[in-house]
Design brief:
This protein has 404 residues and is of the alpha/beta class. It contains eleven helices and 14 strands.
């Protein structure tokens, strides 16, 4: 082994480990690097044992390797670097290297190659390799930080869900007692005290009932995160029939028309899918305009997903509020205008995302709304479509209408 500096590079120097059996070629490479503006510390080795010892004692900034040596091939240094878990650029510096061989070496992990009769481009190749290494290190560090933050966020979300569940569950009993006794006071003493007392008792009763509803909504929201996804084949037509039965009185009261094209089967939790349809259709009924609600539910293939759409002719949503409506307890209207706590859409979002999809709204003020969500197409849907004659879904023009 010939070594120009056995103690490693000084601060500001480029540390180079050069695999080369020709001392004259090694000197020419060092001269090209100095001419290219580098202050260098170079160690020259000729075999694997010396190479291993040197990278353990003084890990270099870059490895330069001749492709063919009498005792060793320069490309074999890559295996040593991998074995030692060292992320160090390796540039081939060879007298003759065909294009096919060069491409194959780069595929195997070499950073670049420079021919010995073109050493003038070696400094730039090293600068580019060091820059790529720096950027790769930054990217890996960012990915590691992102992964840590994702784990912390997941843990934080789990803690919040646990807290929400415990808080809402444990608050139910004392709040139930408060509500019961305020209602008892209202029944027993209404009209026996002055007018202000009746008003204050009414406020207390109303506040207690609203708090009960709020806690029940919070409990329902937190339960989605606590229970695992009970995935199974869900017939969305059957889910829709159940939802229309549940919403029958509300549909009749406002003269709504609910139509749906034949819907696919998906892999999800059956009760949660029914909840998604019920919340979206219920909102379409609640936030209706002057005309009776007209609601259409349909689905189509969109790449690897089913794209569901629940559209209506209601009051619509301002574009700037299209994201806020999916945040828990975010309301766009006062309780005197429309009842509720603003939890329904956040529950839909949580259910859809836990089943591998996403949900959004396309709307405008006084233009109605189209709520869209995706769910992955499960292999059983593809199998069924192959086993049956015709498409997996019937003609989308055919719809089932319910106008109670």
């Amino acid at each position: 082994m010939t070594t120009n500096n056995d103690s490693g590079a000084l601060p500001g120097q480029l540390s180079v480990l050069h695999i080369e059996d020709n001392n004259l070629d090694a000197e020419l490479v060092a001269k090209a690097l100095r001419k290219g503006g580098f202050s260098i510390s170079v160690a020259v080795v000729q075999n694997e044992a010396d190479f291993e010892r040197e990278i353990r004692l003084h890990p270099p900034d870059v490895v330069l390797a001749d492709y063919n040596l009498p005792q060793w091939k320069g490309m074999e240094a890559l295996e040593v670097l991998k074995r030692e878990a060292l992320d160090i650029p390796l540039i081939l510096v060879s007298g003759a290297l065909g294009d096919v061989t060069a491409v194959e070496c780069i595929k195997r992990g070499a950073t670049d190659y420079v021919l010995k009769d073109s050493l003038a481009r070696l400094p730039e190749a090293i600068r580019r390799a060091l820059q790529e290494k720096h950027l790769l290190r930054l990217r890996r560090r960012a990915e590691e930080d992102l992964a840590k933050k994702a784990v912390e966020l997941a843990r934080s979300n789990a803690d919040l869900e646990q807290f929400a569940y415990i808080a809402s569950h444990d608050l139910q009993e004392p709040l139930r007692m408060v509500a019961a006794y305020t209602q008892l006071i209202a029944e027993r003493y209404r009209g026996k005290l002055d007018e202000n007392a009746d008003k204050f008792i009414g406020y207390a009763c109303e506040g207690a009932l609203r708090m009960q509803t709020l806690i029940n909504d919070l409990l329902a929201f937190s339960r989605i995160g606590r229970t695992g996804v009970k995935a199974g084949r869900v017939n969305c037509d059957a889910a829709m029939a159940e939802v229309l039965l549940n919403l029958g009185p509300a549909i009749r009261d406002c003269g709504a028309t609910v139509s749906y094209a034949p819907l696919p089967e998906v892999l999800a939790d059956s009760s949660q899918m029914s909840q998604v349809f019920q919340n979206l259709i219920g909102n379409a009924i609640k936030f209706r305009g002057k005309e009776p609600p007209e609601i259409l539910v349909q689905a189509e293939k969109a790449g690897q997903d089913w794209l569901f759409t629940v559209s209506d002719n209601g009051i619509g949503i301002a574009p700037e509020s299209a994201e806020n409506i999916f945040v828990a307890f975010q309301r766009l209207h006062t309780r005197t205008e429309y009842p509720g706590n603003g939890i329904g859409l956040s529950i839909c979002k949580k259910i859809i995302e836990r089943n591998g999809g996403k949900i959004w709204v396309e709307s405008g003020m006084s233009k109605g709304s189209s709520f869209k969500f995706t769910l992955p197409i499960h292999p059983f849907a593809e199998k069924d479509s192959r086993d049956e004659e015709g498409p997996a879904l019937p003609d989308p023009q055919v719809s089932i209408e319910r106008s109670f």
